[in-house]
């Protein structure tokens, strides 16, 4: 009897221990069944620049229903993404309210896929509609329906532009400009400039189409005839920025500071979430605007009472952008001087007066250097 009791007790203990070691069960909401069954008007399409304003594709779907009786409304959103690289590409996203149909023109769809692949390249696109049931009391997992189609785009923006320079002595040279971000129509190159004139073409070996000067830094698109050239009196290395979008259609020469490692700046210090790590991937600054590659920004959490500085390399032996004076308030002192070694002026750091999430920006235009420190949500 004692033996039976002991065995029973042992089994009870073992079961208790086993239950204690069991992984926590995570509660997951069930997926809503697809009642919408989104459809595309075409399964494949070759976009045509000559039909830019015509409808290229239409999506429609059945109305979703709510799994609960009392709800406020059901709204729809549609997103498009490159099927094979969903997480690597930006997506096109549209809030549609209660609409159950949505169309895109040739130009609109071409603008989307041109950010993913070059012109004349087939890409698989997924269109995904999401139905959201709005209810203040109970959360309902959105219903999702998707359809896939193939698309081939046309060249809205050529892959490159070519800068034709004629020096005052008559010597000619050609520099290629490329897009920092594909499909933006904003071209960039670092060029050694000499006094003379210049203009741009879409082909290295053809005279037209060309971009010449219209007025000031504005450009004129020319397919035949005389191309008016930009005149230049500057000598030295400049970053040439050409924006062919209708909103700007201009050319600018910026005196951007050359970094020891191109496009590489790291924030570090106990005044931010990175800590004293001189080259953390999470601390890498970004150029967010192709029109303004002189602006480098880092957005993250800053800590009151801490310090920061900005590295141009990967170790503490590299050159840094330091504060203008020791303990400069990052939120109010926006002076910025060129990078240097610590031994060439001291280890001057910015200090953080208020904790929070901020965007810290450096303007590396040698003719207009400054910082900004703006709160973000």
Task: Describe what you observe in this structure.
By secondary structure, the protein is mainly β. Helix content is 7%, strand content 40%. It is built from two helices and 25 strands. It has helices spanning 2-21, 106-113, and strands at 39-40, 44-46, 55-60, 73-82, 92-97, 101-105, 122-134, 143-152, 160-167, 172-179, 186-193, 196-201, 210-213, 219-222, 230-232, 236-243, 250-254, 266-268, 295-302, 307-311, 320-321, 328-329, 350-351, 356-365, 368-375. Strands 9, 10, 11, 12, 13, 14, 15, 16 and 17 form a nine-stranded antiparallel sheet that branches. The longest helix has 20 residues, at 2-21. The chain is flat. It starts with a helix and ends with a strand. 24% of the residues are buried. The model is unreliable at 1-22 (pLDDT under 50).
Structural topology:
Layout lengths: L1 H20 L17 E2 L3 E3 L8 E6 L12 E10 L9 E6 L3 E5 H8 L8 E13 L8 E10 L7 E8 L4 E8 L6 E8 L2 E6 L8 E4 L5 E4 L7 E3 L3 E8 L6 E5 L11 E3 L26 E8 L4 E5 L8 E2 L6 E2 L20 E2 L4 E10 L2 E8 L2
Parallel strand pairs: 2-8, 22-23
Antiparallel strand pairs: 1-3, 3-6, 4-5, 4-7, 7-8, 9-10, 9-12, 10-11, 11-16, 12-13, 12-15, 13-14, 16-17, 18-20, 19-24, 20-21, 20-23, 24-25
Number of discrete helical segments: 2
H-E string: HEEEEEEHEEEEEEEEEEEEEEEEEEE
Total beta-strand segments: 25
Describe the global form: flat
- Measured distance between first and last alpha carbons: 69 Å
Tell me the β content: 35-45%
Q: Low-confidence runs (pLDDT<50, min 5 residues)? A: 1-22
The percentage helix is under 10%
Kindly provide the radius of gyration, computed on alpha-carbon positions and rounded to a whole number of angstroms.
29 Å
| Biggest beta sheet summary | 9 strands, antiparallel
Structural class: mainly beta
pLDDT averaged over residues? 90
